[in-house]
Amino acid sequence: MKKKRHSMILQLIEDYTIGTQEELLSKLKENGFTATQATVSRDIKELRLVKQMDKNGNYRYVEGKSETDEYLSKFNTIFSHSVISSDYAGNIVSIKCYDGMTQAACATFDNMSWEGLVGTIAGDDTIFALCRTEALAIELKQSVDKLLQ
Description:
Blueprint: H1 2-15, H2 21-30, H3 37-46, E1 49-53, E2 59-63, H4 68-82, E3 83-89, E4 92-97, H5 102-110, E5 117-122, E6 126-131, H6 134-148
Antiparallel strand pairs: 1-2, 3-4, 4-6, 5-6
Helix pairs in contact: 4-5
């Protein structure tokens, strides 16, 4: 069922301008697939979908490429357009984003190799990144800040 759902998701993002998980969930239901928001979120991550601006200025999900240089370029683009600031407390880094941009930034962030990163969680405008130590959180915050300059 998962492979069929993934195949349908790829077809849907090709055929429609889908910019939110809710829109994707709705289109899946229209096509006979029952899924939860959490399942769709995992699917987006597993398929490495990213949001990209189309010719009309709308952000939509597209397939991300796995080539390192292209991925790094997309990472920098997504971050420069999505992230406002970062801060840390203990071993957690808080990354503030523009409303609605967090999922794309977090999905890309998760696919980069960050030393000591345990995991992330994204809301509507904030990413929390859990690091193994406070020292690693400081380094991660500094790296994020460099990307914003």
